[in-house]
Design a protein that fits this description.
The chain is α+β, with helices and mostly antiparallel strands. 27% of the residues lie in helices and 42% in strands. It is globular.
Length: 81
């Protein structure tokens, strides 16, 4: 039984800070969908990559494959160099 509509993936930029590197910008991935009850469901993976075109390529792949968010971390780990 399907409890939600299709997932939509998007890339977004955030500012981060680390002791080693100071302030920097990186791209994150967000999966959003709606449940049958109408509630908005969102999953995010922060600080995926510094390269915007690569992250947008990843997001396009996730959307075209209609990836379930439970597989997102595995896909990201396999996708990273």
């Amino acid at each position: 039984m399907n409890t939600h509509e299709a997932w939509t993936y998007a890339a977004f930029q955030r500012r981060y800070f680390s002791k080693e590197n100071g302030a920097y910008f990186s791209y994150s991935v967000r999966a959003s969908g709606a449940s049958v009850s109408g509630k908005r469901i969102v999953y995010e993976v922060d600080d995926v990559c510094l390269d915007e075109p690569r992250v947008r390529e990843l997001v396009q792949l996730c959307n075209s494959l209609e990836l379930e968010p439970c597989h997102l971390m595995d896909v990201i780990e396999d996708w990273l160099p």
